[in-house]
């Protein structure tokens, strides 16, 4: 009898207190692909870069000025989207300990590579 009680006591002390959700250790991803540690750090370390029109802006034609303003607006949209992506990566890393990629990432990558090859067909490769 004493042996059973001793084992029960040992089991109860081995389990210890539960860790809070935010302190979850990295687990084996339940997804097929996940971001590498280097990629995660690159995303999290990205700092927003403001678009600078430059001192020459007033010397541009009205059409060139409008083009610069359009590019500046696109730049800000990209930075806004990246900030949201950065927050999603940070949240998923805190919750799961890794950042999952979609299971069809291979298919998406192949489509992107095909579109890129098509867009640059005929452009000489820089060596």
Summarize this structure briefly:
With 127 residues, the chain is mainly alpha-helical. It is 57% helix and 3% strand.
Protein architecture, described:
Residues 1-11 have a biased composition (Basic residues). Keywords: Coiled coil. Residues 68-95 form a coiled coil. InterPro entries: TRAP_DctP_sf (IPR038404). Residues 1-28 are annotated as: Disordered. With 127 residues, the protein is mostly helical. It has a domain at 23-103. Helices cover 57% and strands 3% of the residues. The protein is built from four helices and two strands, in the order αβααβα. It has helices spanning 2-15, 37-45, 62-96, 105-119, and strands at 33-34, 100-101. It has a two-stranded antiparallel ribbon with strand order 1-2. It starts with a helix and ends in an 8-residue tail after the last helix. The model is unreliable at 6-23 (pLDDT under 50).
Task: Present the secondary structure layout.
Layout: H1 2-15, E1 33-34, H2 37-45, H3 62-96, E2 100-101, H4 105-119
Antiparallel strand pairs: 1-2
């Amino acid at each position: 009898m004493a042996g059973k009680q001793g084992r029960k006591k040992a089991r109860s002390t081995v389990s210890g207190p539960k860790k809070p959700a935010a302190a979850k250790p990295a687990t084996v991803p339940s997804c097929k692909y996940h971001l590498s540690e280097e990629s995660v750090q690159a995303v999290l370390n990205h700092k927003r870069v403001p678009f600078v029109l430059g001192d020459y802006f007033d010397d541009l034609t009205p059409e060139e000025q409008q083009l610069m303003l359009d590019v500046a607006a696109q730049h800000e949209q990209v930075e806004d989207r990246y900030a949201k992506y950065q927050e999603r990566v940070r949240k998923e890393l805190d919750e799961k300990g890794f950042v999952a990629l979609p299971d069809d990432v291979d298919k998406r990558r192949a489509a992107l590579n095909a579109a890129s090859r098509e867009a640059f067909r005929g452009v000489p490769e820089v060596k």
